[in-house]
Specification:
By secondary structure, the chain is mainly alpha-helical. It contains two helices and two strands. Helix 1 packs across helix 2. It starts with a strand and ends with a strand.
Length: 90
């Protein structure tokens, strides 16, 4: 189960909280494992790329998101178009 609640959206598999993905994964646990592996790869790459002149601006974070998730999600690097909130928010 996702830690997020959301309104109906076409980014999720029907009747689930699992985002549609390029690998056709329908099991949340497997998707979480793949996401964790992609994050580990991204951490290593982005730490190696950091320079004193790196600007942490909007373009940087959109690029970071796109490069991290593009192999898994079509919407990588894009702004969300659905209202979401964390189950952990008060």
């Amino acid at each position: 189960m996702s830690k997020y609640q959301f309104q109906e959206s076409d980014i999720y598999l029907p009747g689930t909280d699992i985002p549609k993905n390029r690998l056709g994964i329908t099991e949340a646990d497997l998707l979480h494992e793949i996401e964790a592996a992609l994050l580990q790869q991204a951490y290593q790459i982005f730490i190696a790329e950091l320079q004193p002149a790196t600007r942490f601006d909007e373009a940087y974070f959109k690029s970071l998101h796109q490069r991290t998730w593009a192999s898994l999600y079509d919407w990588a690097g894009e702004y969300r178009s659905v209202d979401m909130y964390s189950l952990f928010e008060n």
